[in-house]
Design goal:
about 450 residues, alpha+beta, eight-stranded mixed sheet, three-stranded antiparallel sheet, 16 helices, about 15% strand, globular
Amino acid sequence: MAGPRSLDRLAAIAGETEDYLRWCVDVGLLHRHPDGDFDPDSLRRLRLIQFARTRGVSDQQLAATTARQGDLLGVFGELSEPGEASLNLADTARELGLDDAVIRELAEIVDWDDAELGTESDVAALRVVADALALGIPRDALMQIIRVFADATDRLADAVVRTFHDYVHERFRAQGLEGRELLETTQAIGKPALDLVEPALLHFHRRAYQRANREDLLRHLAEDTIPPAAIPGTEQATVLFVDLASFTPLTATMGDHAAADVLRRFSAAVRSGAAQHGGRILKQIGDAFMLCFAQPTDAIEFGLAMDQFVETESQFPALHIGAHYGTVLYREGDYIGATVNLAARVAAAGAAGQFLITEDLRDAVGGLADADFVALPPRRLKGLPDPICLAEVRRRRREGVDRETDPVCGLLLRRDEVAVRTTWRGTRYAFCCEICRDAFIENPTRFMTENPV
């Protein structure tokens, strides 16, 4: 379908004056034919101009940059949804039989209003929603799935674009390319690379779907022993939190790049351990991971594996690990409820290197050949009215060597990894480098002295 190519129609739909559109033509932001009509992509270009304006980029700045670097609006317009946006999404949704409540929820998820124009691809997505509801999928369940899709693909797309910019475009800039040459060189890689994204996404989704189906098989096999949940999404599970005990001081002292390397090693260990012990990583926030385990013993074995990883890894900080077993509520790809909140509190209550669990999880596990459960005195946890009985999980067989803790960055050091030492108030301390030693000497009272030599 032809787009709004005449001056008056384009101005009306874009919400701009005709004089403004003429100015855009004069500075090269829009293209107009000799007969007075505008190029079919003009509305898309205007939407990009308006977006840049909302982020503080003036029209003059955009025009100057385009003149220097080339047709930026054309390049980034090509990456938009193909097809002419000329169909009113709200009206189309009603024609497909979607009620106003569904339309409002969809509009909130995908961020469009009653006047939003869409493409045929948008309409095809609305048909999928209508077909799913017609099959009998409950509206609440369908909207949860759509939110997960929207959130996951938004994060994925941002990672693809940002990573390409940081590691490809910026590399060319560092090599001295600029202006049109920079844009053309980047696009020579960017366009072919973009064609790889959707096939890769489909592949990873299919692999993930296979894994999710295997887990669902276990749910079906357990139906003879577990009554139906009164509330959809309710189940019994173990929630575990694990994070680096000294990530903030490590970052402050050693810098972002050193901290990022530690986080990379930690993330790889968590993902590998989760795969080996039947855990699902639900989320990562900075250096903290939240995992869920169907079997309580799997959670304990994962925590012990992480403890062993730290013990054998070179120059690595201690961990906080905390877990609780109970009822969780599954919503939109995440678990919520009191069990999750308590597991987070338990992890936060531990000292560096401690693996703490609740009494409920201890009872659910029974016994393990490789672990001891040391009962701790009841303690109050933040936000909870009553004291909680906790237990510390300890590995029976420890094969690592004794290590010392750098009081500044928190790294655990073998004897041969100690770069320098110093004595303060009669106690000798070990450091991974002179940077940490100097920071300690400058203000020793800032740093913990739990592990002096």
